Amino acid sequence: MKVAIFGLGYVGLTAAACLTREGHDVVGVDVNAEKVAAINAGHSTIAEPGVPELIAAAVAQGRLRATADAACLSECAIAFVCVGTPSQPDGAHNMTFIADASRQIAAQVDAHRAEPLTVVYRSTMRPGSMEELIAPTFAQFLGDAVDRVELVYCPEFLRETVAIHDYFHPPKIVTGTRDGGPCARLDALNAQLDAPRFYTGYRAAELTKFVDNSFHAVKIAFANEIGRICRQLEIPAQTVHEIFVADHILNISPCYLRPGGAFGGSCLPKDVRALQAMASDIGVSTYLIDSLLRSNDAHKHFLFESCVRDLPAASRVLLLGIAFKSSTDDLRESPNVDLARKLLHAGYDLSIYDPHVVPAKLLGQNLGYAYSNLPKLTQLLITRAQAEAGPFDLVIDTRGWAAEFAFPAGQRIVNVNTLD
Q1: What CA–CA distance (Å, rounded) separates 131 from 26?
Q2: Mean of per-residue pLDDT scores for the chain
Q3: Is residue 324 a contact partner of residue 356, using CB atoms and an 8 Å limit?
């Protein structure tokens, strides 16, 4: 099948890589000329395990090309919209990129197409967006020929660092359509995926990602609050955790329930803020959800204070891992960026080791977030040889990497992912 993908960030480029692996032809559309050029040269613009190899192979085989021109839609049966929906100042999603992509697509739909173009939105957006923003946009452009498009909402459930695995082994496939029925083209595209399938109206499908991500945030914040209580009462948090997650009947699942690092990344904070804004807008009180980001911020500061307890001012500190997760270069709302910022503001002499973060390769929102929060990021990053040469008064390990390093005997090491 010939597929177009609008937005070549983490979700869009991973989808492009996986679709080409399945034998589909993909054309990626992005406004960033640097991304377009890099992809056409066979280079991945994200650090995600397995994606660079798939992109290189797809370009070499002629199955993938990138462009800034939406005119490519004339040859496509289906188009995915994977553009960003970043947070606005009030916490709601910024729908500018969704609106722009919708107008681009609508302007290119030929009223005389032999078959309708299926347009599948994967970006996280507030319930009502399909009916109140996207459908009217297409109606404005197409008028009586609006049936030349089939609008679908299908949320993605990809975790960074294991995105390829998650693409081919999703926990579920949710398809939102105008009448709540199946979408034949999308079902054909997903035919090889073994997962529970749900067909519903737009609004239920749109809310799904908010519910999932907010619950993941609830689990992390809850576990960390229990972890702080354990620390204060001198109770081993890991023991309490093991007892809690052993109950698979009532406690649901051990996922996201281990006390440790704060939550962050491009999804959880953004979607919790948007759900708060949504609830406020419709007059619903959500005390637990409203407390999540405050609790997470408190936990970030708790981790900072735990790390630097009894550490003299101006001490040399090494931070192992700055990105949101290992094996990725995504710095957006990484709690490790907040930790680094706090260390610098407190006057510590900070160095950072993260082999996956290459400043020259950062693009778009990732680039902006990195340097707005850590303007001196380039100067802070060091090599492994420099990290092992030290000396450092404290090593803060966000990855569990310390055991692999040749640090001198007696090196003070704090792992922020454990509270024992």
Answers
A1: 27
A2: 92
A3: no
